[in-house]
């Protein structure tokens, strides 16, 4: 049995995540969904579970006037059946009242299997900054 090249699998998984994030930030949840399995599990901060990128986009529309990611890097962990991609960076944008923000740390964890994202978990500092706006200063 021939095992897949872990370097190639890692590069492909990172490419899939980057393409997904690019579509998500437009925002174009329909295009983003093309990089995910139909039964994807998306878990946002606070344990909010979504089954489609459109649900996550709708949640973000309530939390932010607009939001984008400054991607710092992908840390990729290839495995025998799936590849884990940690995407790290900061968020910038505007709160619903129009107040700008930047430097809001985030980390996203993706599980990529057979060329599609099967799981996406999201952590960021937004809740802390909403509670204490001075944290971003």
Notes on the structure:
The protein has 137 residues and is an alpha+beta fold. The chain has one domain: Roll (Nuclear Transport Factor 2, Chain: A), CATH 3.10.450. Helices cover 31% and strands 44% of the residues. It has 4 helices and 6 strands, in the order H-H-E-E-H-E-E-E-E-H. The chain has a 6-stranded mixed β-sheet.
Please describe the structure with a list of short key phrases separated by commas or semicolons.
137 residues; alpha+beta; Nuclear Transport Factor 2, Chain: A; 4 helices; 6 strands; 31% helix
The biggest sheet amounts to:
6 strands, mixed
Radius of gyration, taken over Cα atoms and rounded to an integer in Å: 16 Å
What's the shape? globular
Number of strands: 6
Task: Please bin the fraction of helical residues.
Answer: 25-40%
Query: Do you know the CATH architecture?
Result: Roll
Q: pLDDT below 50 for ≥5 consecutive residues: which ranges?
A: none
Strand content: 35-45%
CATH fold call: Nuclear Transport Factor 2, Chain: A
